[in-house]
Amino acid sequence: MYTLPKKLKLFAIIFMVVGALGMIAGFLNAPGSKEDVREMLAQQDAHHGHAEEVQHDEEHVYHLFHQLQNRPWSAVYVAAFFFFMIALGVLAFYAIQHAAQAGWSPVLFRVMEGITGYLLPGSIIMFLLLVLSVLGINHIFHWMDAALFDPESEKFDLIVSNKAAWLNTPGFLIRAAIYLIGWNLYRHYSRKYTLKQDEEGGTYWFKKNFKISAGFLVFFIVTESMMSWDWIMTFDPHWFSTLFGWYVFSGMIVSGITVIAMVTVYLKSQGYLEYVNNSHIHDLAKFMFGFSIFWTYLWFSQFMLIWYANIPEEVTYFVSRIQDYNLLFFGMLVLNFVFPLLLLINSDFKRINWLVIGTGIIILIGHYIDVFVMVMPGTVGQSWFIGLPEIGALLFFFGLFVLVVFNSLAKAPLLAKGSPFIEESKHFHY
């Protein structure tokens, strides 16, 4: 039975405290009024050697004010979504194992269940952020401005207005509730059934888990796409991509599998998971490699088709990212494709634990940047920066994730002994 080490618990709490301080500092440093923005611009002009006061038009000041106010909220949103999507990606991978009746993976079921333990707190945090956006506490979702739908308003936006059947706040929150409740219900019952399977044996609970896992995957693939439209794509409400749901899914599942591998290697190094062998690590690394290639294929397909067609309302999505986020936009391609390709293409490398961990860290950094680049251009535009709110949010949610996941791992034995395939999994060799 695994117990949460005091040092690991302290480690996670320290990260949360330091991160919380960084986030608070980010919110406190955000401008409180347009006058603060004018003063900031005046200081910048003086710093750049402008002898005379430069006049900044009211629209520019207003736009910059909202971008700078959005920055700490966007930083929190990126970090909250990133760690939530890891748990959700693991849940999808876990459901695939049950629906496929996979024989290699039952020794890893408790690791997957531990990571998905973050799903509930992550869901609550995400829903609260969405509610705060709907209430107007922040303005990261530009389309929630009612003036955009009013033909009499100067801000009226015909494109956004034509999407009102989907882009409306009641529907937005109702859909979010459906997604989150459905995902959490599956996690609850699947976990319950595997624990029952351990207690009672037989195949009754195994068959029930198979059925709900197959049904969940149908529900998941639909709701995950809709979630990606609602929670990510609407930051750029004029833009759309039919590949976007799959693109987000690919990043989600490769991040989830990467964390499974990293947690497994860590627990193995601490003397747990005695039946996990190099072949299990090899298979996890193989999935890391495969889904990294899948992510790259979708990235290139989406980018190439839109860039080549050069339709203004579509290509502007990539123009803004290439102009304002050039290093991050192309840097994540190196991190998410080149490094996994070079480090994991060799079969022997997939069995080297330290190499899998190192590659995993690179993959997670790359996909964090991917989420950052999907969110920030539509919320803060050119006013982005890696500072206290971004680092603080990352540290806080990392600490929370570690605390919740390893606490969840301590609530049940690390071996799902009741699985009909447990012996096959124990002796798995590739």
Overview of the structural elements:
With 430 residues, the chain is mostly helical. It has helices spanning 6-29, 34-47, 58-100, 109-115, 119-134, 158-161, 169-200, 204-231, 244-269, 278-309, 312-324, 326-344, 353-379, 388-409, 422-426. The chain starts with 5 loop residues before the first helix and ends with a helix.
Could you outline the blueprint of secondary structure elements for this entry?
Layout: H1 6-29, H2 34-47, H3 58-100, H4 109-115, H5 119-134, H6 158-161, H7 169-200, H8 204-231, H9 244-269, H10 278-309, H11 312-324, H12 326-344, H13 353-379, H14 388-409, H15 422-426
Helix pairs in contact: 1-14, 2-3, 3-4, 3-5, 3-8, 3-9, 3-13, 3-14, 4-14, 5-7, 7-8, 8-9, 9-10, 9-13, 10-12, 10-13, 11-12, 12-13
Total helices: the number is: 15
How many strands in all? 0
Low-confidence runs:
none
Rounded to an integer, what's the Rg over CA atoms? 23 Å
Sheet-strand content, in percent, reads under 5%
Classify the helix fraction into a percent range: over 70%
| Termini separation | 28 Å
Secondary-structure-based class equals mainly alpha
Element string (H = helix, E = strand): HHHHHHHHHHHHHHH
Note the overall shape.
globular
Mean pLDDT: 92
Biggest sheet descriptor: none
